[in-house]
Amino acid sequence: MSAPYEVLLYYKYSRIADPEAYAAQHRALCQKLQLKGRILIAQEGINGTVSGLVADTAEYRRVLDADPLTSDIAWKIDPSEEHVFPKLSIKVREEVVTLDLGQDDFSPEDLTATHLKPDEWRQAMQEDNVVMIDARNDYEWEIGRFEGALLPAVPSFRDLPQWVRDHREQLEGKKILTYCTGGIRCEKFSGFLLNEGLSDVYQLDGGIVSYGKAESVKGEGFEGECYVFDERLSVPVNRTEGASIISHCAICDEPSIRYRNCGWKPCNAQFFCCERCEAESGRFCEPICKEAATTCSIAVTG
Ligand SMILES: [Zn+2]
Ligand SMILES: [Zn+2]
Questions:
Q1: How many structural domains does the chain have?
Q2: CA 43 – CA 93 distance, rounded (Å)
Q3: How many whole angstroms from 285 Cα to the centroid of ligand 2?
Q4: What separation in Å is there between the alpha carbon of 290 and the centre of ligand 1?
Q5: How does residue 302 score in pLDDT terms, banded at 50, 70 and 90?
């Protein structure tokens, strides 16, 4: 039997003249369809990830596909047994992704790098004189990334431009490949690289999520899992024999992709914690968190 729910991940750059009005309409649509998830709306477009019953997500896709503002979305669709978000959140922002470029800002509709399909990407990543840049945040690539990629130690997307300027010598004269979760951040980031005078730049079409679904590559060359911004925390990518786990349980150091939030609420840090360790000693990222949780349990309830 097929799964009763679907998780959608999508984006579309287009001109939304009145984002507030569009957001109100969009909220009514999502509520009618009982979708949950996170949607950002800006004058430059829409970026979202939602879950819902299959009939409802299908209707949502039909409505957006029929609207000239949001037609031709490359939907990424995952089956699911349940909702993967606790609620619906729709926010209006200045930009759908923020690089903080100030007066150097541009629209990916005007400037973005060439897209590579998964099989083209797999080929390109094995060429000489190539660098791959993981355009995501540090807590995302910790759980999985393409083998050999440069991993900028940045906590936020807006820190990437400075990272590029600091690591320019590693990029100069190279063929540059950029990737992210679903592709939207690279639309902007690859355009930024071109603006910086780096000319040989390519982006992974549809991001890691599409790469993992493509039968032509089956996720080959990706190690670990792909971080996602919902209750699943990560999804598998590599379906080949060579699939490996790169992250380790913070307590026992055994390979583990089990990302969890620390059980000491004021800490709440995400860390890797294997099933056995959680069962034996609780879900705490540091001994001090465990101690705090057991001694101050009354103080943190409610
Ligand atoms: Zn462990
Ligand atoms: Zn902790």
A1: 3
A2: 8
A3: 4
A4: 15
A5: very low
- What length does the chain have? 302
Question: What angle do the packed helices 19-32 and 54-66 form, to 10 degrees?
Answer: 150
State the pTM of this model.
Answer: 0.87
Q: How far is the CA of 262 from the centre of ligand 2 (A)?
A: 5
Tokens linked to 38? 């996170």
* Mean pLDDT of the region 159-176: 96
Average pLDDT, rounded, for the chain: 94
* Beta-strand pair 226-227/234-235: antiparallel
Q: Are residues 181 and 230 in the same domain?
A: yes
Ligand lying closest to the C-alpha of residue 288: 2
Pick 257 or 159 by higher pLDDT.
159
274 C-alpha to center of ligand 2: Å?
15
CA torsion, points 263, 265, 266, 269, in degrees to nearest 10? 50
Q: Which ligand is nearest to the CA of 253?
A: 1
- For residues 78 and 67, give the distance between their C-alpha atoms in angstroms, rounded to a whole number: 23
107 shares its domain with 205? yes
Same domain, 88 and 107: no
Higher pLDDT, 298 or 294: 294
Look up the domain containing 296 and give its range: 259-300
247 located within any domain? no
User: What residues are annotated to the active site?
Assistant: 180
Spatial separation of the C-alpha atoms in residues 93 and 19, rounded to whole Å:
8
Closest ligand, as measured to the CA of 284: 2
DSSP 82: S
pLDDT value of position 297: 57
Whether residue 31 is found in the same domain as residue 10: yes
CA of 296 to the centre of ligand 2 (A): 14
